[in-house]
Structures are given as C-alpha cells and as structure tokens.
Design brief:
The protein has a single domain, classed as Rossmann fold, CATH 3.40.50.2000. Helix 1 packs across helix 6 and helix 4 packs across helix 7. About 45% of the residues lie in helices and about 15% in strands. The protein starts with about 25 loop residues before the first strand and ends in a 6-residue tail after the last helix. The chain is α/β, with parallel strands linked by helices and about 210 residues long. A six-stranded parallel beta sheet has the order 3-2-1-4-5-6, sandwiched between helices. The protein is built from eight helices and six strands.
C-alpha cells in the first residue's frame, strides 16, 4: 500500500455473520452492480452455465438495476439456467447484508473497474471474492491469498477461479479470513481519514516560512 490514504469503509458496519445454509444445498454466488454491458454479467452467466453443466449446484443472485436487465434474463433462459439465477433489483442495505449472510462466493465480472466499494465490503464480511485482473483490483486483491483474480472477459478463467473456491470449503474460509484482515488493516475509513489529516498537516507545516515555525 502507498502512503496515500486509500478508499475505505466503516468497518463496524460490516461484521461477518457466517453462512446460513439451511435454506439451500446449492452454493450461492452474489454479484452487485449496474446491469450493463461493461459490468460483464453476460460472461458470468456463461460461466455459471458451464459450471452447472459440470454438475455443480449453484444459485446466482444479481443485485442492481440497469438497461441490460431483460436481456440478461433472456440470456439466462437461452443458456438453460433461468431457475438458477435471481434478479433482485436495487435493494436496501439491510436486505443486501442479509443476502451477504447467505452468500458463499462474491463475484465481479466487470470489463472495466477502479477499486469497487462492493468488493471491499464483501471482503470485510469475509466473503471469498473472484474479480477481474484490471485497473486497481490487483492492488486490493492478492491473487490466491485474499481473493482470486481472473483474466478479464475470459469465461474459462472465470469458471476456473469459481470452481477452485467451490471445491474447497477450507480455501473459501481461509481467503475470506485474510480478505477481512486486509480491509481492516488498509481500508478502515476512520483510520485512513486520520492518516490523511496528519499527512495534510505535515505538508502544510513543511510549507510554512521559517519565521512562522
């Protein structure tokens, strides 16, 4: 991490609650974001279809609204996985946290991103994340340590990373734990705001004329 203050979240608002698996034996995946072409949800649907074809039991939840909603619903139907995909639309924070509590893997399939806040939030909740190797995401996720990265727009690689997590409860738990540790260490908004304020004070002090010091 650099000396600059990074993005952050209020850590106290994101407390891990574990996975309540009593309602379904299928692994639950969550993707949060605007439903639009640049977010790559079509690629994620294709990945899910491939994994289901292998015999894996999955349920994917999309949270968000956007111009591609109906198209994505049709695409899921064409792929034969409509019963395994739920479009939640935009939901309030309480419902989103409830969805997180029943999530096994958080996935972003975007073709373009910075450092998404939803990714930081998922990591804070100890959810193992799969995300594209683009822009600022590799700064947030150390591949194989506190998350898994895939080559952008590569459905096969995306499927591989999701499969790796699905096949190992131990790996999911280990990555989730280390993900939260990183967010607490580097993306705590309160701590980073204090650091930023100190940096500004130091810069101002260094610019004062000698007689004012």
């Amino acid at each position: 991490m650099t000396d600059e203050a990074p993005l952050g979240i209020e850590i106290a608002d994101f407390i891990p609650s574990g996975r309540n698996s009593s309602d379904s034996s299928a692994a639950r995946l969550l993707c949060v974001g605007r439903l639009s072409e640049e977010k790559g949800q079509a690629l994620l649907l294709e990945s899910i279809a491939a994994l289901i074809a292998e015999g894996l039991r999955l349920q994917l939840h999309f949270v968000g609204d956007g111009p591609d909603w109906r198209w994505l619903e049709n695409h899921a139907s064409q792929l034969g996985i409509a019963s395994s995909v739920v479009f939640e639309g935009w939901i309030d924070e309480a419902k989103l946290l409830a969805l997180y509590s029943n999530t096994d893997i958080f996935v972003l399939s975007s073709l373009a991103e910075g450092i998404p806040m939803v990714l930081i939030e998922a990591m804070a909740l100890e959810k193992p994340c799969v995300a594209p190797r683009i822009a600022g995401i590799p700064e947030l996720i150390d591949h194989g340590v506190d998350g898994l990265l895939f080559s952008v727009a590569d459905v096969e690689d995306l499927s591989r990373q999701i499969r790796n997590l699905l096949q190992s409860t131990k790996l999911r738990e280990q990555i989730g734990k280390l993900a939260r540790e990183k967010v607490v260490r580097e993306y705590d908004m309160t701590r980073n705001c204090e650091r930023f304020a100190m940096t500004i004070e130091q810069q101002l002090a260094s610019q004062r004329p000698e007689f004012e010091k």
